[in-house]
Amino acid sequence: MGTPLDTRDDQAAEVLDRLAEAYPDSTISLHFTNRLELLVAVVLSAQCTDERVNDVTEDLFEKYQTAADYAAADEAELAENIYGITFHNNKAGYLQSIGETLEAEHDGEVPDTMTALTDLSGVGRKTANVVLQHGHDVVEGVVVDTHVQRITRRLGITEEERPEAIETELMDLLPESDWQQSTHLFISHGRAVCTARNPDCGECVLEDVCPSSKLDSDVDLASGESWE
């Protein structure tokens, strides 16, 4: 199997250096033109592909342009407007509630604090981090989605399982200047090479430092299970 560097700090630094070279243009893939659109898109993206979200929001953002629009929406109609999004019925309720809260408590604007954002329906720390970073240029942490969770475990950067615990460990390991871009790099690599079910280890720029490499390891450290 690949041999990770001696310390997790060194491993994390080497991984990010290589990924930055492999994906120099890595950035957020959701489409949005303002903070409200960003918030809506990220809420919809939970357990759904960004590609599907971008397809749905192309029309959605034409119809709903303000927090008041979402607050006043008929929930069933809103659910129909986002049909095709995973858990579209639940997320329609989230969007309507978000619109109501933004109108009632934030003058219709998207707030710029972690506390205010995570008080919104359907918004956890991951979503709030994305909105803060890309909507307000505020970096308070590391966005840990399924790609980040999988790849950091596979590479032996962390043994934590919960996203919150992984985020805490990455914040300790990585310089603050890397918190935002590290997420994009892990996501790019997760989509292109280090996929969940069948990673292409033979084409991976990290294979020689990856203790989960399928080329000579029996176990996927991300899941703790044997490779099929």
List the helices and strands and how they pair.
Blueprint: H1 8-22, H2 35-45, H3 50-63, H4 67-71, H5 75-81, H6 88-105, H7 114-118, H8 125-135, H9 146-154, H10 163-173, H11 179-192, E1 219-220, E2 225-226
Antiparallel strand pairs: 1-2
Helix pairs in contact: 2-3, 2-8, 5-6, 9-11
Binding site for [4Fe-4S] cluster: 194, 201, 204, 210
Enzyme class: lyase
Cofactor: [4Fe-4S] cluster
**Main sheet properties:** 2 strands, antiparallel
CATH class descriptor of the largest domain: Mainly Alpha
Structural class: mainly alpha
Please trace the helix and strand order, writing H or E for each element: HHHHHHHHHHHEE
Number of helices: 11
Shape: elongated
Intertermini distance: 16 Å
Unreliable spans: none
Helix content: 40-55%
Oligomer: single chain
Cα-atom Rg, whole angstroms? 19 Å
* CATH arch. level architecture of the largest domain: Orthogonal Bundle
Task: Tell me the β content.
Answer: under 5%
Strand order of the largest sheet: 1-2
By CATH, the superfamily of the largest domain comes out as: Hypothetical protein, domain 2
CATH topology term of the largest domain:
Endonuclease III, domain 1
Mean pLDDT: 96
**Total strands:** 2
Please indicate the count of domains: 2
Structural notes for this entry:
By secondary structure, the chain is mainly alpha-helical. The protein folds into two domains: 8-26 and 143-223, Helix-hairpin-Helix base-excision DNA repair enzymes (C-terminal) (Endonuclease Iii, domain 2, Orthogonal Bundle), CATH 1.10.1670; 35-135, Hypothetical protein, domain 2 (Endonuclease III, domain 1, Orthogonal Bundle), CATH 1.10.340.30. The chain is built from eleven helices and two strands, in the order αααααααααααββ. The chain has helices at residues 8-22, 35-45, 50-63, 67-71, 75-81, 88-105, 114-118, 125-135, 146-154, 163-173, 179-192, and strands at 219-220, 225-226. It has a two-stranded antiparallel ribbon. The longest helix is centred in the middle third of the chain and has 18 residues, at 88-105. It is elongated and about 55 Å long. It starts with 7 loop residues before the first helix and ends with a strand.
